Amino acid sequence: MSATAAPGRAGTVLADLLPASTAGRARIRDAALVAGGAALTGLAAQLSVPVPGSPVPVTGQTFAALLVGTALGARRGVASLGLYAAAGAAGLPWFAGGASGWSMPSFGYILGMLLASGVVGYLARRGGDRTVLRTAFVMLAGSAVIYAVGVPYLAWSAHLSAHQALTLGLRPYLLGDALKAALAMAALPTAWHLTRP
Questions:
Q1: Which of 45, 101, 152, 156 is the most buried (most CB within 10 A)?
Q2: 24 and 37 in contact (C-beta within 8 Å)?
Q3: What pTM does this model have?
Q4: What is the Cα–Cα distance from 88 to 61, expressed in whole angstroms?
Q5: Per-residue pLDDT of the chain (197 residues; tens, 9 = 90+)
């Protein structure tokens, strides 16, 4: 996709609007976006509030992951969240609360964010982030993917029943996810509106 695509053109995500005059510069731009998205997710993960009784804190990382996927598109979004997950699993302390590694019970949510970034990026490339209602659907779909991976992983890794995993790994987070979705519903369509000539 050309970086000079007209704002609002079908098949365009917000990151495509950043200029890159040559293929080499486009690759540099894309690499910077991927690294920047991973760093943003790592920073947002440090906004972490423990949930009593649950090994999964409330963080800003899910919002960042969905925003990265939506703004960058599926390919760059998956690459960005893949970099985030791989670096954290390898020991970089930028998961929630400065954690790292892959053996923690909340690692399934990180894998879910990786998949969700692809889903929301795919939907954004089809105009899913252009209006408030479409953005609401995109955020709901992305959150559903995160939980579809994170909750079963939590149950498996912490030896919980399905009911316990839902109680500890889903219910306490629904209100926060609604607030994060509301932020995205305001931010993404506004960004598209501001790019119109």
A1: 45
A2: no
A3: 0.90
A4: 13
A5: 444 454 445 689 999 998 887 888 889 999 999 999 999 999 999 998 988 888 889 999 999 999 999 999 999 999 999 999 999 999 999 999 889 988 899 999 999 999 999 999 999 999 999 999 999 999 999 999 999 999 999 999 999 999 999 999 999 999 988 998 898 888 998 999 888 76
